[in-house]
Amino acid sequence: MSEVQKIMLAVVGVFIIGFVFVGLSKEKQPLDQVEAAAKIRNNVAMQSMASDKCPPIIKQQTGEQVFFPSEVLGDKETYVTLKWVGENGDKGGFKHASCTLHAALGGITELIIDDKVVIKKKI
Fold it and tell me: N or C: which terminus of the chain carries fewer CB neighbours within 10 A?
């Protein structure tokens, strides 16, 4: 066997060993880890959807732009409620705003600005 054939055989052997290691390292995750990861992804999706949909409606209703909520409530599975404290309550803005988003509806189900219900949908 020539030197070139030995080198080619060694390279092929390294590739085969590499494929075996990669195949063995990809084990299935336990069911509880898969469920926990799904819950986290769902919670993040709800919060990002609420962060996208609520501020434009609050600005449309009050004329005041909101950025970061002062409080985030929810059960981490079905709904999330974002609350803001307004800065221009005396000058035509708002004092408090609360926006609730339910995952089942995929949109805003309740919007309350200064104790006035702007949006109220049944679930």
Answer: N
Residue appearing with tokens 């408090």: 96
Please count the other Cβ atoms lying within 10 Å of the Cβ belonging to residue 39. Answer: 12
Please enumerate in sequence order all residues whose Cβ is within 8 A of that of 118, keeping only pairs 6 or more positions apart, or say none.
57, 61, 111, 112
User: Is residue 69 within 8 Å of 84, Cβ to Cβ?
Assistant: yes
Measured between alpha carbons, how far is 72 from 79 in angstroms, rounded to an integer?
Answer: 11
Largest CA distance in the chain: 91
Q: How many CB atoms lie within 10 A of CB 80?
A: 25
Give the number of other Cβ atoms within 10 Å of residue 86's Cβ: 19
